[in-house]
Specification:
The chain is mostly helical. It contains 5 helices and no strands.
Length: 148
């Protein structure tokens, strides 16, 4: 009989959220480090920090999602291009929806971002599962991708 922890670790959705949380924390720490130490005092340095933290964050997320959430092999560059495109869709939705919710619907910014985060997280899960790491019937995923 599987333990509760074993079932949680075996659940792809839980692994997706765990990797996402890890990536969010690392991304924030990288952004903070760049902002406080590398680009401190640089005009618009926080924007450079943001761009570089996205590069680090997307790369880390790709490696972790590909290894632990949607374990596949082969097609590395294709998978990465698809992965980035899913992220770009999520960023685009965020950039469009946030001002609409805040300026038009008068939702407080923190609440609006939380709503968008929930929506984009769900969309990202399915985008990565069905697009980024999708394999044809002949290209079966590795056995570790067992659970939902």
């Amino acid at each position: 009989m599987r333990t509760v922890i074993g079932r949680l670790v075996g659940d792809q959705r839980v692994r997706f959220l765990a990797v996402g949380a890890t990536n969010t924390i690392v991304g924030y720490l990288v952004f903070s480090a760049f902002t406080l130490w590398i680009f401190a005092g640089v005009h618009l340095g926080y924007l450079l920090s943001l761009a570089l933290s996205y590069v680090v964050g997307i790369t880390l997320a790709f490696v972790l999602y590909r290894r632990f959430v949607f374990p596949v092999h082969g097609h590395l560059l294709r998978d990465f291009a698809r992965f980035v495109s899913v992220y770009l869709v999520a960023i685009g939705i965020n950039a469009a929806a946030l001002p609409l919710l805040v300026e038009v619907a008068h939702v407080p910014p923190l609440i609006a971002q939380l709503i968008i985060l929930v929506v984009t997280t769900v969309l990202s899960f399915f985008g990565h599962k069905k697009f980024s790491f999708r394999r044809s019937g002949a290209e079966q995923p590795l056995p570790a991708s067992n659970a939902e």
